[in-house]
Amino acid sequence: MTGVTARVPAKLNLQLAVGPPRADGYHDLVTVFHAVSLFDEVTVEPAERDRVTVAGEGADRVPGGRDNLALRAVAALRAVVRDGGVGPKGVHVVISKRIPVAAGLAGGSADAAAALVACNELWASRLSQQQLCEVGATVGSDVSFALLGGTAVGRGRGERLTPALAPATQYHWVLAFADGQLSTPEVYATLDRLRAARAGDRGGPGRSGDPRGPEVAAARAQSADPDLDAALMSALRSGDAMLVGRALSNDLQPAAVSLFPPLRKTLLAGVELGALGALVAGSGPTCVFLAANAKRALDLAVSVTGAGVCRSVVRVTGPVPGAAVVSASQ
Ligand code: C5P
Fold first, then answer.
1. pTM of the shown model
2. Which has the closest alpha carbon to 51: 31, 61, 73, 66?
3. How do strand 171-177 and strand 312-318 relate by DSSP bridges?
4. Which residue owns the Cα nearest ligand 1 atom 13?
């Protein structure tokens, strides 16, 4: 085989509930992932050594070399399937980007997921989706979901997934891309700081400890553990976009807005222009608006563009399937 191409979607988080920081620096999450029709394409070809070429949206900001998540995924898969003895040792990964970089849409994780399914085919490794998810989880928290797609509840770092049982409703989204990027670790750290300051103001465990004693402080810390939003899950089961719009939530949003204040205006504009719901995508700075149907999404996209509150606007639908091979040449 001389080349395999896989296509992979961006993700939204319809709920993103973030717990306190863990000892390993990550945060336990409860999130509702939702894959949407904004796709990157990744082609893998046998080569002398691993290398990556990136073209398209934000290509100049995608790290090359060992920091590239798709190359890391190739190395992680190779370590598992030990292809070293057969076929070429290296892979040339060619990424064609439409998902903006550092935008809260898990574009890097998506490219890693696409590289996994493409190399699985190129090397005829025959790993199951579950096995690829296990490899993917070592590369990034969102890689497993990019493999699975659809709508799914994520726990742990986001890598423990349960598909959401929901009717085959298609949702219409408008994405407003910002003129800038946000660093995911910085957004999480800002959330921790905002929470510590708030707890400190209340005399809670964030700064000075709880005056009612360590048990109460522990209980307060416990209550910060994230929960799945029953209203959102019931809205998804009903397939009613109005209810889904009302139930969208993202704990990272205040942190993203504090690091990128123009987002406040973008979110407000979307709501004023008729969105059923508005929120920041993941760690931002993309803003996400839900529309009632395709026609409303078109109207909303036109008016958000006209309002001049973002760099550019796209319409997408969801849910869509996860990373999949679209072509293979012999
Ligand atoms: O797993 P991934 O490399 O995508 O995570 C990027 C960063 O986001 C982590 O280094 C961490 O700072 C933050 N993060 C987190 N808790 C999660 C997922 C990501 O703190 N559950």
1. 0.93
2. 66
3. antiparallel
4. 185
